[in-house]
């Protein structure tokens, strides 16, 4: 229960920080797209924390060990920091777009964006359910197996694919086209992170080299 409470607390803090960035940059609380996104994110976050807290607390422990400080490799520290900056920048740009009306997309766009964000969150959940060793930082544990089923049979890094889908959905959910710049910035950062992660996995995770010969695509199915 302690781990569950910590995970829920971390999710609420993240939601609060996102809200602070969004409403500060927007200059108003009259921003229904932001309220909707925060409500959806908070609901999904708490639901996942409760589920794993009751069924597999080890998953929550692994997910809590995230961020630049948790990384042991310099490239991963840099990539993790860059991902946080890109995410925050995407929120701020989206809120500024709302404030100044740079793009002003129709109502259908935030609805589509919210659906994409939920899809991304869902794909991330499915990836973790398939691979309980999926941690928020780059590490290999004793007796950790290579997972090749489910989404891991399509791409080697389904968590990053899910994150990319989410990052495309969030600015649209916030009613912004310009916020997609943050999503574009995610791609080269993920490429750097993946190359370094695969070097570690090839060295320390038994069977990973063979797995890469069977699953060719790293991030995007049928592309790369």
Keywords:
224 residues; mainly alpha; 69% helix; globular
H/I helix tally: 8
Distance from N terminus to C terminus (CA atoms, Å) equals: 40 Å
* Total strands: 0
Percent of residues in helices comes to 55-70%
Unreliable runs = none
Helix- and strand-based class? mainly alpha
Strand content: under 5%
Calculate the mean pLDDT score and round it: 86
Task: List the helices and strands in order.
Answer: HHHHHHHH
Shape: globular
Radius of gyration: 18 Å
Q: Largest sheet, if any? A: none
Describe the secondary structure blueprint for this structure.
Blueprint: H1 2-26, H2 32-55, H3 57-64, H4 74-100, H5 108-130, H6 158-173, H7 180-204, H8 208-214
Helix pairs in contact: 1-2, 1-3, 1-4, 2-3, 2-5, 4-6, 4-7, 5-6, 6-7
Structure explained in plain terms:
The longest helix has 27 residues, at 74-100. 69% of the residues lie in helices and 0% in strands. It has eight helices and no strands. It has helices at 2-26, 32-55, 57-64, 74-100, 108-130, 158-173, 180-204, 208-214. Helix 1 (2-26) runs antiparallel to helix 2 (32-55) and helix 4 (74-100) packs parallel to helix 6 (158-173). The mean pLDDT is 86. The protein starts with a helix and ends in a 10-residue tail after the last helix. The chain is globular and about 50 Å long. By secondary structure, the chain is mainly alpha-helical. One of its GO terms (cellular component) is endomembrane system. It is found in: Endomembrane system. The chain crosses the membrane at residues 7-26, 32-54, 74-96, 108-129, 150-170. It is a multi-pass membrane protein. InterPro entries: Metal_cation-efflux_comp, Phopholipid_MeTrfase.
């Amino acid at each position: 229960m302690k781990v569950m409470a910590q995970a829920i607390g971390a999710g609420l803090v993240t939601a609060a920080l996102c809200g602070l960035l969004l409403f500060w940059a927007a200059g108003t609380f009259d921003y229904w797209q932001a309220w909707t996104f925060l409500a959806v994110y908070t609901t999904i976050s708490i639901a996942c924390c409760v589920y794993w807290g009751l069924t597999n607390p080890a998953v929550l422990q692994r997910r809590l060990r995230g961020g630049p400080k948790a990384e042991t490799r310099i490239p991963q520290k840099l990539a993790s920091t860059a991902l946080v900056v890109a995410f925050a920048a995407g929120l701020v740009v989206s809120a500024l777009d709302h404030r100044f009306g740079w793009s002003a997309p129709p109502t259908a766009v935030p609805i589509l964006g919210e659906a994409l964000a939920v899809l991304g969150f869902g794909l991330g959940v499915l990836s973790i359910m398939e691979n309980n060793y999926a941690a928020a930082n780059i590490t290999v544990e004793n007796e950790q197996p290579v997972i090749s089923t489910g989404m891991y049979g399509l791409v080697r890094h389904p968590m990053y694919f899910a994150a990319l889908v989410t990052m495309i959905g969030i600015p649209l959910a916030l009613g912004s086209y310009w916020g997609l710049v943050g999503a574009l910035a995610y791609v080269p950062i993920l490429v750097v992170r993946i190359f370094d992660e695969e070097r570690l996995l090839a060295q320390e995770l038994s069977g990973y080299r063979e797995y890469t010969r069977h699953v060719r695509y790293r991030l995007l199915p049928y592309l790369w």
